[in-house]
Amino acid sequence: MALGGSTSDVDVRTVSGGASNLTYRVCRGDRSYAMRVPTAHRNDSTADTLRREMTLLEALGGSVIPHARLVAKDADGEVLGAPFIMTEWIDGFSPRAPLPMGFRGSDSARALATNLVDALAAIGNEDYQALGLGAFGKPAGFLERQVDRWLSQLERARSRPLDGIDDLCSALRCSRPQTQRTALIHGDYQFVNVMFSLQAPPRLAAVIDWETATIGDPLLDLGWMLAGWQERGEPPTHASYMDWADMPSRAAMAERYSMATGLDVSDINYYVALALLKLVAIMEGWYFQYLNGHSKAAGHAVMETMVPDMIRRALVFAAAR
């Protein structure tokens, strides 16, 4: 594998690590790259997930969607013993509170928000067939499968009664809207999974972490983004990592998305409630791991109260259609 750069010396440094993958910064001379590697095994589920992201990033090379350009890949693990992807290095930051100097205040908050939703609209507008992603997902019946899919995951990791979950699933089954468009969806679209340029004013440089991407109803991406949105006077959400002061309202964000995509967002509360059901299933799984001694993360312990709160919040959105 040949890397560009002014010298032959290669410097590799760990950026982050977790159960699913490791991220490294690879430098050769004056050029930098990001390399992601799953576990040390070629054929486990995380390797399969990385291969899907590999396919997606390769397809995005012909897209207007902001992303880190794929520069090298190994699907079979021949080089390192595990698959990897290497992309261009993005000099930027994923917004979290406190925001960097130069990105604070009402003007920056609005610019961060509008950049975020505009990039999501670009994803929803992209012709995934033209990118060669026609077989990337199973769009037929996508929305119809969602409640049972996430309820099934929840039941596999359920250790306690969860008041309201049956009512939530019933409401989502009974009021499901018709899918207006089949599109590429990111699957975990929020501030922590995008990068902004280091230079003010805010400019979204890349959408990252595509490992849960698929083909389906793009309004679920919007619902997921808005599920953590916090308006003035509301209690903290699961996305309390962000400073929500001066951010536009959920309604304003949905309307901007609608103007950019041509999609009707009058049922967006349904998609927010569905996104919260998905989060309930994921986060109750974390709590299950904590209870069984497989996790000592403090963030997993707080799911004891956060999950029931999330169900109550989802019921409010489900009833607000």
TrEMBL record:
The residues covered by the Aminoglycoside phosphotransferase domain are 11-253
What CDD domains does UniProt report for this protein, alphabetically? ACAD10_11_N-like
The protein depicted here goes by the name Phosphotransferase family protein
Query: Which species expresses this protein natively?
Result: Sphingomonas oligophenolica
Q: What is the lineage of its organism?
A: Bacteria, Pseudomonadati, Pseudomonadota, Alphaproteobacteria, Sphingomonadales
